[in-house]
Design a protein that fits this description.
It is globular and about 70 Å long. 25% of the residues lie in helices and 19% in strands. It has 12 helices and 16 strands. The two termini are 33 Å apart. With 405 residues, the chain is an alpha/beta fold.
């Protein structure tokens, strides 16, 4: 697992700074103002480092300690006399590379990766607040004032590669930003029109306001991921720990449909939902025919989930019949359906075509048992923080003859 944050010795700043990490390639591309880029001294061969290169109007200079490893003695004084912010990153040198976006924090003396080029899990983190308290929430909410994130995200979007294939907007509950969420999506439309945007929302606020209407035709590649945990209000409201949420989410789904939005239903496979999983699939087909995709997702064992293990955890080996039934019901009616976060050895082979490598690179790992597995290259593996308590008894290496079969 490659962390998203590291210690850094940051000097020359009085407030956090977002910068595009740049090497010679990014300099030659000339896509970003120099003042918004930080020269990654670690990526420049000493022979190519010149006083003229250091003297450009960089927003910051990034290196590591000892500085003599990345800058010749003759230029070291120029680094410190440049008058620019300087940061020495600690830890794994792979944590940030040219093309990434870093936030340098002088107060905490840390550098955080806000965008990682080539990663499959880049997220625009909209807010820490939420109006639900889902039993398995992987990002427990905090009720803090963070509307400042709207401008922060707009600034970040300006530094993301315009070739980025996909971004998620998540939280917390992004719609709590209100009009601010539409502002962020509009910024993405301006700077990243070819990027697929995936807003992960509980949908509860979209049906009671005109918020959904603001997203009509706002971005050409916008999809909403909305969770639904049962075909009955009591089941859904229990899982999200919020009375009235089922009705609110349904109103939100219909409001999104009226605003001509693309919609995915997300179902986290927690114990309370499994008994009625097939009934939920039929409910979606009957009442939400405009939905484009259904994702059935293994649980992420962190956040609130750790406190509710007994209430939530079910071994995939024990619910394969319900999973097969739900997938069959959806796929036979032409619904696009995917399985996320479920290792191949824990589900029937008939479901393998629906399994996706869905876990973000930075938190994706494999167990020792996976080393000899013949289908490891096709398998989504595990969350890095999985423990034996959250691991299926069905985990075994798949043999070659089984793959051939």
């Amino acid at each position: 697992m490659l962390p998203l944050e590291t210690k850094a010795a940051v000097t020359g700043l009085t407030s956090p700074l977002l910068v595009k990490l740049a090497g010679l390639h990014e300099l030659a591309e000339d896509q970003y103002p120099l003042e918004r880029m930080a020269l990654d001294l670690r990526s420049i061969p000493k022979a190519a480092m010149t006083p003229e290169l250091l003297d450009l109007r960089w927003g910051a200079l990034i290196g590591t300690q000892p500085w003599e490893d990345v800058v010749s003695d003759g230029l070291l004084a120029q680094v410190w006399s440049s008058g620019r912010p300087v940061a020495a990153l600690q830890g794994d040198s792979a944590i940030a590379k040219p093309g990434d976006v870093l936030e340098l924090d002088p107060y905490r003396q840390r550098a955080a990766v806000r965008y990682r080029r080539g990663d499959n899990g880049n997220v625009l983190f909209a807010t820490e607040r939420c109006n639900s308290y889902c039993l398995m929430c992987s990002q427990p909410p905090r009720q803090v004032e963070d509307d400042w994130r709207v401008q922060h995200l707009c600034d970040l979007v300006e530094l993301i590669d315009d070739t980025e294939p996909s971004l998620a907007i998540s939280g917390g509950e992004p719609t709590l930003l209100g009009d601010g969420l539409a502002t962020v999506v509009a910024k993405c439309s301006e700077r990243l029109p070819s990027t697929h945007l995936h807003v992960l929302s509980n949908g509860r606020l979209l049906g009671s306001t005109d918020l959904a209407n603001q997203f009509e035709r706002i971005h050409p590649r916008l999809t909403w991921g909305i969770p639904l945990y049962g075909d009955h209000y009591a089941l859904h409201d229990y899982v999200v720990q919020s009375e009235g949420a089922f009705a609110q989410t349904l109103r939100g789904l219909y409001a999104l449909e009226a605003a001509k939005q693309r919609i995915e239903i997300r179902v986290v496979l927690v114990k309370p939902s499994l008994e009625r999983l097939e009934a939920l699939a039929r409910f979606i087909l009957r009442n939400l025919p405009f939905v484009e995709h259904v994702a059935l997702m293994g649980i992420e064992p962190t956040g609130f989930a750790k406190a509710h293990h007994a209430a939530l955890w079910a071994d995939p080996a024990d619910y394969s019949a319900q999973l097969q039934g739900a997938v069959n019901a959806l796929s036979r009616r032409g619904m696009d359906v995917s399985l996320y976060n479920l290792p191949l050895c824990t589900i029937p082979e008939s479901l393998w075509p629906f399994a996706r490598q869905s876990i973000s690179n930075w938190k994706n790992d494999y167990l020792d048992a996976c080393t000899p597995c013949a289908v490891k290259h096709r398998c989504g593996g595990f969350f890095s923080w999985v423990t034996p308590q959250w691991t299926s008894r069905a985990v075994i290496p798949i043999e070659l003859d089984l793959e051939a079969a």
